[in-house]
Amino acid sequence: EELRVAVVGAGMMGADHVKRITHRIAGARVSAIVEPDAGRAEAAAADAPGSLAFTSIEDAIAAGAMDAVLIATPGQFHAPVLKPALDARLPILCEKPLTQDSESSLEILELEQQLDRPHIQLGFMRRFDTEYQALRDLVVSGESGELLMVRALHRNPSVPESYTNDMLITDSVVHEFDVVPWLAGSPVKSVEVKHPRRNSLAPERLKEPILVIMELENGVLVDVEMNVSVQFGYQVATEAVFEKGIARIGQPSGLQRWDAGFFRVKDHESFVTRFAAAYDAQIQRWVDAVRRGDLIDGPNAWDGYLVALSCEAGVKALNEGGIVPVEAPERPAFYA
Ligand code: INS
Fold first, then answer.
1. How many distinct structural domains can be found in the chain?
2. For a pocket test of ligand 1, which of 162, 166, 271 has the largest count of ligand atoms closer than 8 A to its C-beta?
3. In a domain, 60, yes or no
4. What is the ipTM, given to two decimal places?
């Protein structure tokens, strides 16, 4: 039996997941699209033949339209979808962030813990990128000695109008708050934010780029260049400094051209192409896990909660300055 997936939110990411499930994922189909905007719903439905259209998650659940839910709405609408989906005991893949703050994330954890096991997988897709995986393998192997520092670049060409200054942390650095502790095998201990000279091309409401410095419990120091108005393209790259070696991932790898006195390499313009293979792997593994009955195969809601705690510290550091500590509580056995 094919897994019937309801995609909630048919914006850029949701519409991309609809296409992915229809054309590239084995063992699943999009059975429902939940989207209040009629235009978006209709556009996405064209990529999901036979799917039903709903304007609310409650209606889709009442109609029994799915076996699993993929949440791709903007972050502030995650909690109102997660709650009824958990009540209905449905497996869920939730795009980042889990919710907007640690308090509402805790509420979700409490609801989930009333079920027999974790039902929520978090959409931290970088963990499914083969280069990130190779870097993690290198850290674990110890071949280059201990990891000392991580330099991360996170550059977007531009951001939508709905993107606020705090979202530099909660919508963007949120990825580094998940993937760097995963790479380094150690949680975030503190966060600091520095402001270089402001990019005059940034939307007026944004004071960026920013430099985020995080210290991990194991002493690894991480700096993240978060830059969302670079104009030219989409880049996510990392240089890891070890005791006896350096490793680098995320370099441009597109078409190389020699032309009119220049050498050029095609680079990405959006996360949709930059992480396409990672999204494919993430969704395929989630679908396989749900069909096997494991329900998740990747970061869980506890990981989402830890990231929410780091984001809170990050927003405080962004707005008030200083080095803000992060207290990482112990992982409950339910999420081991
Ligand atoms: C997007 C998405 C991208 C990230 C952007 C963010 O929502 O999560 O992966 O690079 O900064 O705004």
1. 2
2. 271
3. yes
4. 0.99
